[in-house]
Write a structure and sequence with these properties.
It is a single chain. By secondary structure, this protein is of the alpha+beta class. It is built from seven helices and 18 strands. Strands 1, 2, 3, 4, 5, 6, 7, 8, 9, 10, 11, 12 and 13 form a 13-stranded mixed sheet that branches. It has a three-stranded mixed sheet with strand order 15-18-17. The chain has a two-stranded antiparallel ribbon with strand order 14-16. The protein is globular and about 55 Å long.
């Protein structure tokens, strides 16, 4: 009896892509993944899966209409032409270059492999930059949210700068969110350290989080002791926004709606009056916009008024 045919490189890339989006991998699975993507051809196939997924996410969530796709040979030729232009102007470009930036608009998510082999997945309406140096790997988060799967390297810590703080890891998986003056760190695998990012105690460890723990605190540090108690969260809920699922615990309707609207570029959800300050605990599948709005409206006991610009919840 003949053995089944070996999956193509594209099929293998699709399988690993799905495994990445499913959440933290087991140790054995991650070792197999690192071995597979050590082949540059495999890594290139995986990168293309992430690029394609980002394009489809914009389409599916109501992002801007894409330009007409070129047939593959023409796309390849166009890419080659751009590459030649970049190489031709590399001397001048490097003189003006800065740390690479990953930026997303409303409704857009991106996944990207960093030069060290770590993977970052960036949520909607976010911006961060990164630099892989000789002694440290640095990410600077201006605003937004990202999930990190860090390739282990004890000699080169992985540090995310957010506000007045640093999140330090060696080889682990965690999520960092910086929105509206708050930072939220949640760990799905391994451990991370919350450290002071500035001042006389810069680098001092303020707290250590293990898998299944979450901590939320202001992004501006005030004088005095850092006394924030971590909470417990199911690891499967950490970074579930990658699957367009968001969970809110005792959040105001204002916070829910502001976050919800980041997933859609064109239409807006609006709440009026006293509804904005009501607190809710709710889990929404935002990819199904209509169903998510109906779920929120039912919880609040209100009707939905629809218009071409969006929906209105009123008390």
């Amino acid at each position: 009896m003949s053995s089944p045919p070996k999956p193509s490189r594209q099929e293998q890339a699709a399988a690993w892509f799905a495994a990445q989006r499913a959440g933290a991998m087991l140790v054995e699975q991650r070792e197999a993944f690192d071995l597979w993507r050590a082949d540059p051809r495999n890594q290139a196939a995986l990168d293309r899966m992430h690029e394609l997924w980002g394009e489809l996410a914009v389409l599916k969530l109501g992002g801007p209409a894409p330009r007409k796709a070129l047939p593959f040979p023409r796309r390849a030729m166009a890419a080659a032409a751009v590459l030649v232009a970049v190489i031709g102007g590399s001397v001048g470009w490097f003189a003006l270059s800065r740390d690479p930036i990953i930026e997303t608009i409303a409704g857009e998510q991106k996944s990207q492999s960093l030069p060290d082999g770590s993977l970052v997945t960036v949520n909607v309406a976010s911006e961060l930059s990164y630099a892989i140096r000789d002694d440290v790997r640095v990410v600077k988060m201006s605003d937004g949210e990202a999930a990190f799967a860090v390739k282990a390297d004890p000699q080169k810590p992985f540090v995310v700068h957010a506000g007045d703080f640093e999140v330090r890891a060696v080889g682990t998986a965690f999520n960092v969110r910086r929105r509206d003056g708050l930072i939220e760190v949640a760990v799905s695998e391994g451990k991370v350290q919350i450290c002071s990012g500035s001042g006389s105690d810069a680098g001092a460890i303020l707290a250590t989080l293990s898998a299944g723990q979450l901590m939320r605190f202001p992004d501006t540090r005030t004088p005095g002791q850092f006394a924030v108690v971590p909470t417990t969260v199911p690891t499967e809920q950490i970074s579930e926004w990658r699957m367009r699922v968001v969970t809110y615990e005792n959040a105001t309707v204002r916070e829910v709606i502001e976050d919800f609207n980041r997933y859609f570029e064109n239409k807006r959800l609006i709440a009026t009056g006293n509804l904005l300050e009501r607190r809710v605990t709710i889990r929404l599948q935002v990819e199904d916009r209509e169903s998510a709005i109906e779920t929120l409206a039912a919880l609040l006991g209100t009707d939905v008024a629809r218009s071409p610009e969006g929906e209105v919840l009123s008390d």
